[in-house]
UniProtKB/TrEMBL annotation:
It comes from Hermetia illucens. Its main location: endoplasmic reticulum. It is a peripheral membrane protein. One of its GO terms (cellular component) is endoplasmic reticulum membrane. Heme binds at C443. This is Cytochrome P450.
Length: 499
């Protein structure tokens, strides 16, 4: 037998061996008597067709009347998908002690920015969250409010000049530049000016962040130990180097020159100062390293600029399609601002209840992320069943599908802010709206996200009218290979008219 024949035989044997291992793994849910979606080699239940990640596993809901959870597979890894709101509430809130981890990929050696609060588990997560939570109190939001207003005024000026030249505006890039400048100022104390210069370095690296394929995130999540052995990164090295160096320079400059801005960077400095003074050392209470601080700043940047800009993009899109809702928002804005002598204040924003309902309806229909992910830290018997979620298993909570469940939200594809009137919210299950998660691991920055979004939309709707144009996709088509939900091509054109 020649070398080529031997090599071919070896490859065939290897493929057959791998296939048989997958087939064996794909029996996990069946042998336990759990309702499951039939997997396909080698992706499991990751669909071959081009749909956004948020729409994976939608077929699980056909078993809604039969079982509280359905089994699926990421590649060969079994994953539990809860479809009962009561079970979801147990996982996120009531029995949080059994699901306090996310099981996200953390590789502090090769990928230091992966060790941020969103990804961390166990006591380290608890310690970091406790230290960072003071950033997002109501008092801190009031302090940052004027900074966001300053940026939105520059945003207003930029848009006014743009539509003098061309009334059809690509709003995704524009809104991402706005939120980049907000985060740059509130988190780093840096005037980014990406509204004036689209190629400003913060904007450049903001775009780089989203260039990592969701399949890479799925792989490192499904096989974290293998990914660490392969020295895989979820964050590009050039992006990591930029953020680490930016944080180092910012902290050194402030400490040396005794500068305070009462922002996120000051909080990081204070945490380490307090650790030194209290003599903390061992364990999870020790002071944060430069890489630790950079990771938390990176999270603030990524979570703050892209999710908020995506929410504003889809809100403007729906308001362009629904002029009556747009006008109702505008009337409320003008009425409230008249009460405050035309001044955009923290109190004024809080009074714009219909605008808030409109934002929530946007988050219902277009949640930036499609799943909440938790990891069992101990065996968990599912209430009223014989099913056990085993220790170490990941749980994917399909919030996008919940937000589009016709039994919860009749005619779910219709954009209707009245769904979030106080009366209707009161009559729904508390887990029927999960845009910011729930329980102890809910989004710690939701106050900031809401404030930034309200300020941006209020200013836009007060000064401009938005309409569809020939370049506007109707119906909406989504970009397939992005973690954050986004229009296809990551572009959205709307016609903008000055009022």
């Amino acid at each position: 037998m020649d070398c080529l024949s031997i090599a071919c035989s070896a490859v065939i044997v290897l493929i057959t061996f791998v296939y048989l291992i997958f087939k064996w793994k794909y029996s996990y849910w069946k042998v336990r008597g759990v309702q499951y979606l039939e997997p396909s080699f080698p992706l499991g239940n990751i669909p071959f067709k081009k749909i956004h990640f948020s729409k994976y596993f939608v077929d699980a809901f056909k078993y809604k009347q039969q079982t509280p959870l359905v089994g699926v597979y990421l590649f060969a890894v079994p994953v539990a998908v809860p479809i009962s709101l009561d079970l979801i509430q147990s996982i996120l809130v009531k029995d949080f002690s059994s699901f306090h981890d996310r099981g996200a990929y953390v590789n502090e050696v090769d990928d230091p920015l992966s060790a941020h609060m969103f990804n961390l588990d166990g006591e380290k997560w608890k310690a970091v969250r406790t230290k960072l939570s003071p950033t997002f109190t109501s008092g801190k939001m009031k302090f940052m409010f004027s900074t966001v207003v300053e940026v939105v005024e520059r945003f207003n000026y930029t848009l006014a000049n743009l539509i003098k030249v061309e009334p059809e505006v690509e709003v995704i890039d524009l809104l991402e530049r706005f939120t980049t400048d907000v985060i740059g100022s509130c988190a780093f104390g840096i005037e980014c000016n990406s509204l004036e210069d689209p190629n400003f370095i913060f904007r450049y690296y903001g775009r780089k962040v989203s260039e990592v394929s969701p399949f890479r995130h799925l792989f490192v999540g499904a096989f974290p130990n293998l990914a660490r052995r392969l020295h895989m990164r979820a964050v590009r090295k050039d992006v990591a180097d930029f953020f680490i160096e930016t944080v180092r320079k910012t902290i050194d400059y402030r400490v040396k020159n005794h500068i305070r801005r009462n922002d996120f960077m000051d909080l990081l400095i204070d945490i380490n100062k307090d650790s030194d003074e209290s003599g903390e050392g061992a364990g999870t209470s020790k002071k944060l390293s430069l890489e630790d601080m950079a990771a938390q700043a990176f999270l603030f940047f990524v979570a703050g600029f892209e999710t908020s800009s995506a929410t504003m993009v889809f809100c403007l899109y729906e308001l362009a399609l629904n002029s009556d809702i747009q006008e109702k928002c505008r009337q409320e804005i003008n009425g409230v601002l008249t009460k405050y002598n035309g001044n955009l204040t923290y109190e004024a924003i809080k009074e714009m209840t219909y605008v808030d309902q409109t934002i929530k309806e946007t988050l219902r229909q277009y949640p930036p992320i499609g799943f909440l992910i938790r990891k069992a830290v101990r065996d968990y018997p599912v209430p009223d069943t014989k099913v056990v979620i085993k220790k170490g298993m990941e749980v994917f909570i399909p919030l996008h599908r919940i937000h589009h469940d016709p039994e919860i939200y009749p005619n779910p594809e219709k954009f209707d802010p009245d769904r979030f009137s106080p009366e209707k919210v009161k009559n729904r299950h508390t887990e029927s709206f999960l845009a910011f998660g729930d329980g102890p691991r809910h989004c710690v920055g939701q106050r900031f996200a809401k404030m930034q979004t309200r300020i941006g939309l209020t200013t836009l709707l007060k000064n401009y009218r938005f309409k569809t144009c020939e370049k506007t996709p109707v119906p909406m088509v989504f970009e397939t290979f992005r973690g954050i939900i986004s229009p296809k091509g990551s572009k959205l054109f709307l016609k903008v008219e000055r009022i």
